[in-house]
């Protein structure tokens, strides 16, 4: 009897101990970073689609009228767990990572020169939160952008320190990337963007092409008819030069007409000349092919007798067809 009583007490004690252990397990904290109980501070990085980087990505044009576009990013930091106390985070630029970025993208981006970047690098994740109450703010002033040569640039940003938390080992870097072009060509202008008026008289205008048209004649571009044309089949890169017979001042843009949007031009490198010998590059024009009329707009008006279009991309795999060529003054 005594032995049975002792055995029952032992069973009861075992059950109590199991219950305590189970309750203790239930009280343990749960963590949202692969079971890591250490709070980690991290940056959200951009993504890579093939060799293309999609993150803090900007485009800037250096035009005769000044900088168009901006480089301005606001980047928060995060923690994997709610902060027990305020977490002070410092982010700095790290140009040693330019090569890492280029290896991932297959690009040739270069670092921004010292002194060009404005950076507010100290951030706070408040107690009880997982996101910073403020954002790292990075910008490059227009006067600084104007001093840069055309090209692609990258600003690598790294978390350099954090208190009351650890810095993530594999998510402590992000990149700000931008492309700078020197151009006098407005991007993808529509009819409503054009200024000035179409020049009505095109007497004596001629054109040449460094390829043999498949059909039609280049002179058809100056007959005021949209049902006459020249075509190139199959399409290929080609250079068309228009001679307007005399120098025209304050040209604000160009209008071309294609037989339909199917056979339109996508991009063309534009240059101008007053004598046919000395040429001024105006930039690469991106043409909006949502209608049969396509436009090139100049940020700053140009004086020219000759306008050259080096056609580099087109919409159809079948042919290019042009029917009319006009300018705005």
UniProtKB/TrEMBL annotation:
What is an example of a Pfam family matching this protein? F5_F8_type_C
Q: Any coiled-coil ranges, and where? A: none
Which PROSITE patterns does this chain map to?
A: FA58C_3 (PS50022), PROKAR_LIPOPROTEIN (PS51257)
Q: Which InterPro entries match?
A: BT_3987-like_N, FA58C, Galactose-bd-like_sf
The signal peptide annotation in the UniProt record is 1-23
Q: Taking every annotated instance into account, which residue ranges of this chain make up the domain F5/8 type C?
A: 185-329
* The organism's place on the tree of life at top rank: Bacteria
This one is known as: DUF1735 domain-containing protein
């Amino acid at each position: 009897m005594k032995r049975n009583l002792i055995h029952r007490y032992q069973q009861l004690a075992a059950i109590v101990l199991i219950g305590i252990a189970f309750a203790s397990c239930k009280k343990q904290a749960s963590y949202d970073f692969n079971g890591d109980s250490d709070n980690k501070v991290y940056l959200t990085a951009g993504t890579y689609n093939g060799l293309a980087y999609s993150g803090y990505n900007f485009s800037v044009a250096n035009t005769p009228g000044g900088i168009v576009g901006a480089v301005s990013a606001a980047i928060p930091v995060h923690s994997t767990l709610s902060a027990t106390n305020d977490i002070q985070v410092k982010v700095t630029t790290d140009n040693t990572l330019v090569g890492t970025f280029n290896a991932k993208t297959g690009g040739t981006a270069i670092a921004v020169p010292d002194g060009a970047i404005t950076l507010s690098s100290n951030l706070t994740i408040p107690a009880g939160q997982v996101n910073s109450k403020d954002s790292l703010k990075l910008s490059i002033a227009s006067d600084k952008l104007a001093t840069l040569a055309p090209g692609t640039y990258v600003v690598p940003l790294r978390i350099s320190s954090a208190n009351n938390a650890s810095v993530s080992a594999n998510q402590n870097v992000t990149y700000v990337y931008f492309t700078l072009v020197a151009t006098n060509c407005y991007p993808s202008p529509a009819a409503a963007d054009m200024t000035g008026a179409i020049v009505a008289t095109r007497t004596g205008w001629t054109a040449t092409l460094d390829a043999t048209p498949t059909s039609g004649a280049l002179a058809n571009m100056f007959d005021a008819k949209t049902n006459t044309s020249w075509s190139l089949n199959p399409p290929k890169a080609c250079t068309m030069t228009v001679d307007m017979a005399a120098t025209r001042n304050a040209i604000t843009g160009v209008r071309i007409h294609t037989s339909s949007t199917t056979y339109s031009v996508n991009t063309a490198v534009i240059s101008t000349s007053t004598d046919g010998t000395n040429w001024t590059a105006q930039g690469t024009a991106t043409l909006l092919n949502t209608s049969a009329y396509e436009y090139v707009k100049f940020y700053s008006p140009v004086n020219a007798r000759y306008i050259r279009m080096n056609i580099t991309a087109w919409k159809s795999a079948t042919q290019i067809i042009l029917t009319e060529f006009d300018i705005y003054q």
